[in-house]
Amino acid sequence: MLMMLPTPDDIKTQRLSLHLTQSELAKKAGVSQPLVARIETGDVDPRLSTLNKIFNAFEAVEKEHVVAADIMHSSVIHATPGDTIVEAVGMMEPQGFSQVPVLDHGVPVGSISSDTVVRCMMDREKKDVKNLLVKNIMGESFPTVSPTTDANIISHILEKHPAVLVVEYGKVVGVVTKHDIMQLIHR
């Protein structure tokens, strides 16, 4: 069996796909940055042990690189704009959710929260609120990201929002909450 060794372009392509600078790769691999630069330009033929260090560094970075698709929940409990408040609350309460996205055929159009429902109840009579439609009181939609968005970026978004929706081809495919980010401590 003939095994092909990586070319300088292969190494550079892998480094760039992991969003590493030459300096970062050098530090993680325990080699110098000028050596990484010379390997990538083809000025030097590296030892097998050096290539091994570089590819071990790549593997370590891949393991620590967590994206939305790795941590999202793909069954997204949601309301629709045409749901009544009673229906929305009936779906939130059993799950212990204080808010859910509002989706229209898989597309995010807003959100509904227990705070919004309580405020609405303060302003109207209970019987009027029960039959009110979600679309009449829903708030802003949660922010959206792609399945390949880095978990660090998502954690910063979650500092200001209760949830982040994961969207692929225009449709919601998952949701990430602060709880999901906190679960990374167990990895």
From TrEMBL:
Residue ranges annotated for the HTH cro/C1-type domain, each copy included: 11-66
Protein name per Swiss-Prot or TrEMBL: Transcriptional regulator
Q: Which SUPFAM superfamilies match?
A: CBS-domain pair, lambda repressor-like DNA-binding domains
GO MF term list = DNA binding
Q: Name one Pfam family in it.
A: HTH_3
Keyword annotations of the record = Amino-acid biosynthesis, CBS domain, Methionine biosynthesis
GO BP term, example: methionine biosynthetic process
